[in-house]
Amino acid sequence: xxxxxxxxxxxxxxxxxxxxxxxxxxxxxxxxxxxxxxxxxxxxxxxxxxxxxxxxxxxxxxxxxxxxxxxxxxxxxxxxxxxxxxxxxxxxxxxxxxxxxxxxxxxxxxxxxxxxxxxxxxxxxxxxxxxxxxxxxxxxxxxxxxxxxxxxxxxxxxxxxxxxxxxxxxxxxxxxx
Length: 177
Description:
Blueprint: H1 2-30, H2 33-50, H3 60-77, H4 97-113, H5 116-127, H6 132-139, H7 143-161, E1 168-170, E2 173-175
Antiparallel strand pairs: 1-2
């Protein structure tokens, strides 16, 4: 049991001496102080589990940097990563429900007017919420063709809808006002 105590003491010394540098690294990766602290905490938990298996404690910082970087990349891939909590939620204007139906019908008409590949790319990417690779597989084309078809289709939708029904783009998602 003395080895476990020694490992724990070495880990605590490592954390005490290197945590500030690790938080700086995490901040540079994420651009947010609170998320950087969360990232370091999660990464150090993973490193602690692997600590007894580290052959050379001198390489612990390099290993920890690798864990932080891989975890940050993994976090950024999640859709929920880009969601940010807000103090107050904006309430949707209490509009006439028939307005939503009109918006739906107008958008539907313009969507049907698009060429089939553009329509398929938009529906698969934004309605079915498929990745570009999954959409390419479903359409039997390359990822580049999916990107091009989606971009062109959304451009045409924006042009056709015009100022009466303004479409806003946020991170490749189409939303209505």
